[in-house]
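I hope you will forgive my troubling you with a question about protein structure. The record follows directly beneath this note:
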Amino acid sequence: MPFVKLDCKILDKSIWRESPEVCKVWITLLAMADSDGLVEAAIPGIADRARVSIKSVEMALRKFQAPDKYSSNPENDGKRISRVQEGFQILNYGIYREKDYTAVVRQRRHREKVSHRDTVTAYASASESEIENKIERLKRESGVLQEKFNSAWMEGLPLYKLKYQNIDLDFQFENIIDWVKREHGKAKKSATGNLNLFFQRWLNRERPRFNKSTAHERIRPNMIEEPPARDLTPEEAKAEKIKTLQDSIKSQQMFLSNPNARKDQNAINIVTLNLARFQSELASLQAEGGTK
């Protein structure tokens, strides 16, 4: 939308001592002028725009074309307009058009910009520090998680060697650690439960697809499917845990009954401890609801 610069000092000019109708016609001319100060309009058109009579416009135009000894601008003897072929030319229009009225605004915007930049810089610095702290915390947590998974894996390894003889266990454990690094939140949640059951579910899923003959075909971490996450009812979860414990107990007993296992006393000790723990957990679960 077009607009016109109106100098606030007009209130101190001699024109502001004229009648309201004369002042109104002057403001109307300023609003009608183009970028060069030319008002292309006849007197009736100006009267229609100013909402005054044609007689009032004629009187105002005579005043504007006459010299003004009280004018603050000595050029043109204080005359404000001149009659031209296209209409009326505002004589001092260019002077006011070239004035810089934006200095105060620009200074304010500059101060706001500097203040905003400082705020953003301070916020960015704080954000970078927070991000770095978060990364360091996640690294520490990831290291603790990996150590927890490693300890649990070593504890159950004798059982896994017996139960999953057709799987490259070293390869699968590397895949598990890759998953722990990639899915930190899910791994952290899994670590709160029985990791022995977690490993067995993982290996049960991998058994049909990965064996010693294909162990060299290492899969990329983003191709690893995470362990199944089902929303079970409390009864279903309890039944699944009981079945897993029963399977684990059978596997432990099979290991102890294997003549070859007697050669590894350390493995026998670990499996014996696991067997006792599994039997205790199973007895507790069965006692809760009278399960047999």
User: Anything to note?
Assistant: DSSP finds ten helices and three strands in the chain. Residues 196 and 281 are 13 Å apart (CA to CA). The first strand starts at residue 38 and ends at 39. Confidence is low (pLDDT under 50) at residues 208-226.
